[in-house]
Design brief:
The protein is α/β, with parallel strands linked by helices. Helix content is about 40%, strand content about 15%. It has one domain: Rossmann fold (3-Layer(aba) Sandwich), CATH 3.40.50. A seven-stranded parallel sheet has the order 3-2-1-4-5-6-7, sandwiched between helices. β1, α1 and β2 form a beta-alpha-beta unit. α1 crosses α8. This is 3-oxoacyl-[acyl-carrier protein] reductase.
């Protein structure tokens, strides 16, 4: 009988999160799928995944990542045994930095760095009980090169990569790897505010000539979660079509 595998996918209701869930489920993973607002998306997704993969387990987890000082022990206690954490949650605020409020900045850091760090501290002992365990962040190319109009977001994504680089060194000796998959431009709802002309102009800047599809990001998460991936840790992998990095 194959080894039981369970991953916690945070931000599972987003376009990239949904693709990660489908890709991991196809690879034999059971999933805990976190959401905040989009319960309907998760409910429908679980129904479909259970139909496709009846021998695996799929459950939902409602959690607001912008809320500090949560009881992370209780949250994770309801998730069963798990070998992987995937942090795909996150939003951006597209505006000049001087127009970005302090609360917006705090929310971005809480959602995409502080809450994940707290969850990781709580989960570390359980993860390290497994011979192969994984943590993957969905970062951004802007964490490496920065983006005007997304200064706070770029700062958070850069901080994710710095955290991963440092933390991976602490836990590398016993099979826990920690990495970032940093997409370039991806065809998701985050880009819905841009016009078709804007998106066409963006595609012209990308050497492969188009934006990525979510499944082209999800495959790298699947590869990092494989048992054969023990030797890659502390890295930010830029999946950008040859664009900025």
């Amino acid at each position: 009988m194959p080894e039981f595998k369970r991953a916690l996918v945070f931000g599972a209701s987003g376009n990239i999160g949904q693709s990660i869930c489908q890709t991991l489920a196809t690879a034999g993973w059971s999933l805990v799928m976190q959401y905040h607002h989009n319960q309907v998306v998760i409910t429908e997704s679980i129904t479909e995944l259970q139909r496709q993969f009846p021998e695996q387990e799929f459950q939902s987890l409602a959690l607001d990542f912008c809320q500090p000082n949560l009881n992370y022990t209780d949250i994770l206690a309801g998730c069963g045994d798990y070998q992987a954490l995937v942090f795909a949650q996150g939003t951006t605020d597209y505006q000049l930095f001087v127009e970005t409020s302090d609360q917006q900045i705090r929310d971005l850091f809480q959602q995409q760095l502080f809450t994940p760090m707290s969850l990781i501290k709580t989960a570390q002992n359980r993860l390290q009980q497994h011979a192969h365990s994984r943590i993957v962040f969905i970062g951004s190319i802007y964490g490496g090169v920065g983006s005007a109009m997304e200064v706070a977001y770029s700062s958070v994504k850069g901080a994710q990569s710095s955290f991963v680089n440092a933390y991976a060194r602490e836990v590398a000796a016993n099979g826990l790897t920690v990495n970032v998959v940093a997409p370039g431009a991806v065809n998701t709802k985050m880009n819905a505010e841009f016009s078709e002309d804007d998106l066409d102009e963006l595609a012209l800047e990308i050497p492969v000539g188009r934006m990525a599809q979510p499944n082209e990001i999800a495959i790298w998460v699947k590869n990092l979660l494989a048992t054969e991936a023990d030797y890659l840790t502390g890295q930010t992998i830029y999946v950008d079509g040859g664009w900025l990095k």
